[in-house]
Amino acid sequence: MATQHDRAAIAAQLSLLEQELKELELWGGAERRPSAAELASSLPFAMDTLEFHQWLEYILIERLRMQLATALPLPTAMMVHSFAQEAYRGQWGKYRRLIALLRELDELITLEQA
Predict the structure, then answer these.
(1) What residue segments make up the domains of the chain, in order of their start?
(2) CA distance 108 to 85
(3) Using one digit for the tens of pLDDT, what is the confidence trace for 16-72?
(4) CATH architecture of 7-109
């Protein structure tokens, strides 16, 4: 594992995730943005107010892109693909590439622990 983030690789991975969500017809864009109240959920993955793909688009991808653009620190560990496997249980064929892209993002974000 790396000791610092490859910010360019993370940005590229986020673009791949966006493209995959679009191909799956799950990308909502500005016109389908959830309300501020739905986005403010305190539960993991906003599971009480958002579908998983909405959380990916409007929280995870958006937040990571903001952190990259403003040179803010990124998380040092992440395991989103594990939740994706649960969210899409029984639909592996349809979501296999999305889960693989999330696993790659997890690997890019997770730094070696000293």
Answers:
(1) 7-109
(2) 18
(3) 999 999 999 999 999 999 999 999 999 999 999 999 999 999 999 999 999 999 999
(4) Up-down Bundle (1.20)
Residue 106 phi, psi dihedral angles, 5° rounding: -55, -45
Instruction: Please name the residue that has the structure tokens 């889960």.
Output: 99
Q: Give 85-100 pLDDT, tens digit per residue.
A: 999 999 989 999 999 9
Q: What is the DSSP string of the chain?
A: --SS--HHHHHHHHHHHHHHHHHTT---TGGGPPPHHHHT--SGGGTTTS-HHHHIIIIIIHHHHHHHHTTPPPPS---HHHHHHHHTTT-HHHHHHHHHHHHHHHHHHPPPP-
Please report where in the chains the tokens 């958002």 appear, as a residue: 50
